[in-house]
Amino acid sequence: LHIYNCLKSAIAKNELFLHYQPQHMVQNGEIIGVEALVRWHLGGKQQISPAEFIPIAEETDLIIDIGIWVLQAACRQFVEWQLQGVNVPQLSVNVSTRQFHDNNFVDSVLMVLEETGMDPMQLNLEITESVVIEHAEDAIRKMTDLKNIGVSFAVDDFGVGYSSLSYLKRLPANELKIDRSFIQNIPYNVSDMAIVEAVLAMAKHMGFNVTAEGVESRQQLEFLQRQQCSFYQGFYASKPLSAEYLALYIKRLQ
Ligand code: G
Ligand code: G
Ligand code: MN
Ligand code: NA
User: Fold this and answer.
1) Which residue in 148, 150, 233, 245 could disulfide with 121, CB within 3.0 to 4.6 Å?
2) What is the ipTM of this complex?
3) Which of 18, 37, 94, 181 to mutate to test the pocket of ligand 2 (most atoms within 8 A of CB)?
């Protein structure tokens, strides 16, 4: 309860901020985008991990306000980079299932796009397959409405949690993100390598791009090159960076 009350005032107190993790082409290392990841500096000092506070926010409608704040702050930063000549091709933003199911979700995305001047073609929303467990028709309609104006969708944490192939089949998404737990023991775990190969084959036939998450080594990247995975992110390229460091990272690549 204590942490919930602190989180409730975190936006007003300016305690939330964003880091951005670069995403690259597997084949040639080109930058294809960044994923915005929220951070919380409680009282300006103590850092609390989103792995800890996002689940708390998700138990209530607090995730809706936090989600809108994240989307707005990320889009604003993205437009700012463009004005500075920092060329980031795409912005990925996490959307929690509860936030997605809010009645105002589509309108709030439209409002943020308009307010910030963000090009919808450059916005990618990361959801999980659990969005179609309940209210599937409604969820698919929301995704289709946003896709029609150019927004794309990625299925996050693919392969863990509530993942199910029958949910996946129904999702009008553009991309799958293979959870980092399947990547971390490559090239030592034969089962994980088989799973990644199978996901890539399935994704190819279903028309999904694939991003491998949590790539930490050259051997992992080489495996993904051999398997013709499209994109990757992970500490091997970069940890999540502040907006300022992300701009330097991109300028170094340009
Ligand atoms: O950045 P880090 O690896 O510490 O994130 C931990 C978890 O918090 C991840 O599962 C990530 O998806 C989630 N997360 C980070 N930022 C956001 C956000 O802005 N919104 C939502 N819903 N989840 C986020
Ligand atoms: O669930 P989601 O994909 O949104 O979570 C991203 C989280 O994974 C971020 O909190 C980020 O800090 C973390 N992360 C990103 N790259 C790596 C990596 O290479 N290794 C590990 N262990 N964690 C990573
Ligand atoms: Mn994500
Ligand atoms: Na993930």
Assistant:
1) 150
2) 0.94
3) 37
